[in-house]
Amino acid sequence: MKPRFNxxxxxxxxxxxxxxxAAPRLLRTLQAAGQGSDAPRNxxxxxxxxxxxxxxxxxGYERETTPNISRLSKRAIIYRNHFAGGNFTTPGTASLLTGxxxxxxxxxxxxxxxxxxxxxxxxxxAFENHYRIAYTHNGWAxxxxxxxxxxxxxxIPREKLLLGSYDTIVEELFRNDDDIAPVSWIRDxxxxxxxxxxxxxxxxxxxxxxxxxxxxxxxxxxRGLPTxxxxxxxxxETAVQTIGARLPEIPQPFxxxxxxxxxxxPYRTSRExxxxxxxxxxxxxxxxxxxFARRVMKFLPARRAEYDEFILYCDQEFGKxxxxxxxxxxxxxxxxxxxxxxxxxxERGISGHSTDALYQPVIRVPLMIFEPGREQGMDIHExxxxxxxxxxxxxxxxxxxxxxxxxxxxxxxxxxxxxxxRNIYLMRANxxxxxxxxxxxxxxxxxxxxxxxxxxxxxxVPSEGLVKLFDIQADPEEMTDLAAAKPETASELLVELKAKxxxxxxxxx
Amino acid sequence: xxxxxxxxxxxxxxxxxxxxxxxxLHAWTLLLAFRDLSWLTERTNAWDAVGVASYGLVFAFVESxxxxxxxxxxxxxxxxxxxxxxxxxxxxxxxLIASFWAIVSQLFFLFGVSLPxxxxxxxxxxxxPVRVLYAITFLIVAPTLLIxxxxxxxxxxxxxxTRSLIDRLSLLTTFYLLxxxxxxxxxxxRNLS
Lengths: 509, 193
Description:
The complex is a heterodimer. Chain A is of the alpha/beta class.
């Protein structure tokens, strides 16, 4: 019987093999060429957690922490006075994603979720004509992404890009209870987190198996592998490579939200940047110990240096991500946004961001927009807020501007060159009940040159509250409290802030 | 194999050994789960807090089975010259003491106890401090495991005392197993919704 498929046929087909390898790339190129300039573009949001503008050299920090970002930002729009929605992950991320302030979305408690209306009113719901993909290392940000999952086409499981983790098994096994089953698993098995676990024996076995998996990587991270707070190590490189490889494969236009944990504590930079700032002579301004400082922390300069070295690692990986997206051609048709959910501080006796204080380093974050085809950089000095990001991106991507948003479309993308005068608000209330009027909170209002701090309900402050006023243009380090010297300004801003608090409290009275 | 198994263990003996493996694991899990209940309730809600405890109990049951299997296998190393009940008592004592030390090691972290600075400093001066720590730990733990085991084997008084302890703990552990059933039901309900 004559074979149906002879040697000649095989060779003919084999000749087509290189074409089959090239086909996806050719098709993508043709697809991109077929899209006119009016076709919706992709949007890629990159968030580095706890990334303070104060410590970024592109934003004027004395230490050279971001050489790559500085190089790339020559083609970017840089918002010089951009503020997060809160001073830790949950409120900061929720404001970025919903376009409203924490007192509206109500996710201001640690690891809390947004109020029910914002389960659909968020960036993913707004980008309904885009393929929506998201990833985060951060467990609290992941809580929010899971809450929004119905509007996300591809939510990459958090554990997928963590090292030495068997946790995905638990998530898979208890898929319908993927909030609580992993929490119990952590309490059961992860002895490293608190030094104890429910399991007396298997936790040690689990630990040694994990250790074995990451043993080879340890010399590359002299301070230990970056972790998520529990014992799951991860490499930023892995996340950057995975995302850089995935984006060219997904349908366009897409919205990508990628929230990386570094430079969040623990500050564990790679070997390349280890001790890069050790004894470099850097001498930050000495500031008075704050009322919210728990104790005088002598290790703050060393902690700051470790944080700055961790930023170098983030900067390097952002540069790699940018270069890989540029090489794949994705950036020709994509808006790339670099920002953060909150800042970090190493002054006034406070380390990190677990503080009720709202000084600039803990709330002022970077915002850079890399526009396709832009060759010239641009600086925007007006005050902008995390809540402005959603309407701006919706506008840029050709989606409908959400009517619920509290932000504005940012310049230079509006018809007017300036934002109408407005107040920038920010709050922290992680001891307050989630759905009750604000009675214990830290708030700020920024307008023109001034920033008003108003703290109330805390044991550390007087019963009428604590008010501070700073001229953040003339005194960006917030060294001179003007509340006594400029009582009219302080009083005027305080009245406005209290009126706003009264307004947001009304639904919960 | 079947003959060897029945010669070494009775069904009642295996059940007792299982209960002795389950006791410390469940007691520790329940202790920590109750400790976690308040902050978990505060962070999420009471149902989620109960959920965490329920998973903990289910995992504790699985761990109990694994430890029981290991202990039963280890029992084959004990000479079959001793009567089966005595071998069960020996294995039970070994499991209970090993669990006690595992709990002690975790209590150090729970209560924030650490070695005095001078000891840490002295350890840091020697070439292999971790090995030395392991050796010291072994020297402390090994006698506390072996001496009671030998006493149960050789002294009738110790054996009777152990039997009495096992009887009391068995009853308590049976209650723990009821908690396991409740925990399993809660896990199933949570995963059905």
